[in-house]
Predict the structure.
Amino acid sequence: MKTPFKSILVSALLALTTVFSIAWFSCNRDKCKSIVCANHGVCNYGTCVCPSGFQGTNCETVSRLKFIGNWSVFEKGTITNAAQYPITISPSNTVTDVVITNFYNYFVNPIKGYVIHDTLYIPNQQLEGKIVFGTGYITSNNTYGQYGTILMNYEVIDTATNIPNDFGFYGPDLSQVSTWNK
């Protein structure tokens, strides 16, 4: 009589352990329960996924803020000598958009750009007899304060002559990456 009772007891304990294990491991612990994402960010498995224009652990930082301000440009193009001049980057219409005044030390009208995380994009645009496009990125983590550096790769093409002036956009040649210091 003891053997069947032992078998039943062991089987019952094994069944209870199996049911308890399944219940324990199938429970989804909500990793987003205590996380609040700002600026319409969405929590995914404990990490905030930020909408375009925002970054940070909880999407609390506007990405373009580190680019806004006055910058001193140092550059040498494929057809221009070394130059130094000021530019200003200002916010524009949406949370990602910026405008750059005195770009190339030539343009009277502002150049349009947009920011995604630590990268400044200048989409292909034509104005004042030139075509402009490029990409730059922040190289210093201390850009929210007074100082920062952008390494800008861009090209300006004269529409009358079709001659490009390259600033590191197409890699190693006679040009150099344009350095913008805050």
The domain at 2-61 is CATH 2.10.25.10 (Laminin).
